[in-house]
Design brief:
The protein is mainly α and 417 residues long. 66% of the residues lie in helices and 1% in strands. The chain has helices at residues 3-7, 12-15, 27-50, 62-83, 93-109, 118-133, 144-166, 168-171, 186-205, 211-228, 231-246, 253-272, 274-282, 287-291, 296-305, 310-315, 332-360, 366-381, 393-405, and strands spanning 323-324, 327-328. Strands 1-2 form a two-stranded antiparallel sheet. Helix 9 (186-205) packs antiparallel against helix 18 (366-381).
């Protein structure tokens, strides 16, 4: 302390460099952390429920494996109830359309000849109820549900990588990467990798992620995507990033630079790596297999020509495992027509139309860009994948898009109180 300061009577403590003391956590902060954890857990359980168990390298009994995925949905519902005890919901058009699908499935399942669809109908209704209970946390600025979804998919991909290290021969059977610790087909592995990659790029373009972390996530997820040799996920990823980027190109200089660099890289790749790209896309298949979409059209033709009465044409045959004569349908629109008739196809189209229109009226930003990525990805994938009328990751990602397009609550009520 200087002599002049001493003469002026300045306190010694005022002249010492102050140390920043972290604020003590309050009860409200602790409650908010607890709410975030439970919301994230509920969403993770919803993701687990959508992963159909078909076997495991660990020789988990089929009853146990299927039981884990089936119990995950009611567990998610219970966790959502613990965080939303007052059952406070935010009305929105998206979930109202899902209620229409669930109500139609219930009406169909009450028909004696379709009574076997009751379980899947009840499962779909549970999923819709769980989404309603989580609506108070839709529209959050911290992207809580999106982060929970990406973390859940990352856990699944971590199990795929671990299986590759333990049993590379099984994981790379037929030359396509799949999950072996928990049987995840290559198409689903590609779906998870593409969603993580695309969402990470969008977050980085909006300045929500740092460069090093983004580079690591993109490198790993891109390697997994390429190892699956899945064309649908790649096409949906490119389309989703293109639409999301165009929604930001006016406002973000980083997006304009990335688009310019991506165009240059694509041009060089087309000229120098066209043979490799073509071989990767063909996957050793002949022209007939490509024109038939790897045998998908062999199922679509008989499905459309199946005789139906008026009720079956309008309301379908009830929810099933999205197969026809023992073969997967592999098209959301045809699967919707088979399960819920023209009514289901119309509602699916209304869901996409509503989300696109809602995105059009949202201001530019990370929420709109992410929503457009999810919508575009699901739209492109819907032609060769199923998922809008059942408990699938595609349904959850459309719910994420709807949550991102919802306005933040002016005064968020704490439902747990």
């Amino acid at each position: 302390m200087t002599a002049s300061a001493a003469r002026d009577g300045a306190p010694i403590a005022a002249l010492r460099p102050s140390r920043r003391v972290p604020p003590m956590p309050t009860t409200a902060d602790a409650r908010e952390r607890s709410v975030r954890r439970r919301v994230g857990l509920a969403w993770g359980l919803l993701v687990l429920n959508t992963i159909v168990y078909a076997g495991s390298l660990l020789h988990i009994p089929s009853v146990v494996g299927k039981g884990i995925t089936q119990v995950a949905l009611p567990a998610a519902l219970l966790v959502a109830l613990t965080v939303n005890r007052r059952i406070v919901v935010r009305p929105n058009v998206f979930l109202c359309l899902l209620v229409l699908l669930a109500a139609e499935a219930i009406v169909t399942s009450l028909q004696p000849q379709y009574f076997s669809t009751v379980y899947r109908t009840f499962r779909f209704a549970e999923l819709v109820a769980a989404l309603w209970l989580l609506t108070p946390w839709w529209g959050r600025r911290d992207l809580l549900l999106v982060r929970s979804h990406l973390v859940s998919l990352a856990v699944v991909l971590a199990s795929v990588i671990l299986g590759l290290l333990i049993a590379p021969g099984h994981a790379l059977a037929d030359g396509r990467l799949s999950g072996v610790l928990w049987d995840v087909p290559p198409t689903q592995v590609a779906h998870y990798a593409a969603v993580i990659l695309g969402a990470t790029v969008v977050l980085w373009l909006c300045g929500r992620l740092r460069g090093r972390r983004t580079l690591l996530i993109v490198a790993v997820s891109a390697a997994i995507l390429l190892a699956t040799h899945t064309r649908t996920a790649l096409a949906a990823l490119i389309a989703g990033l293109l639409v999301a980027g165009l929604s930001l190109i006016v406002a973000k200089q980083r997006v304009r630079k990335v688009f310019a660099a991506a165009g240059a890289v694509a041009a060089v790749a087309i000229v120098t790596l066209s043979g490799f790209v073509t071989a990767w896309l063909e996957r050793g298949q002949g022209t007939s297999q490509l024109t038939k979409l790897t045998g998908r059209t062999d199922v679509w033709g008989p499905l459309l020509s199946l005789p139906r009465d008026r009720f079956q044409e309008i309301f379908g045959f009830g929810l099933s495992n999205d197969s026809f004569n023992g073969s997967p349908i592999d098209s959301n629109w045809l699967a919707s027509y088979q399960a819920q008739g023209l009514f289901g196809v119309t509602v699916c189209a209304a869901i996409l139309l509503f989300l696109i229109v809602a995105a059009f009226f949202r201001p530019r930003g990370v929420e709109r860009a992410l929503a457009l990525f999810f919508i575009t990805y699901c739209l492109v994938a819907s032609f060769t994948e199923v998922g809008f009328t059942n408990a699938t990751p595609y349904m959850l990602e459309l719910a994420l898009a709807a949550s991102l397009l919802m306005e933040p609550a002016a005064t968020r009520r704490r439902a747990a109180q």
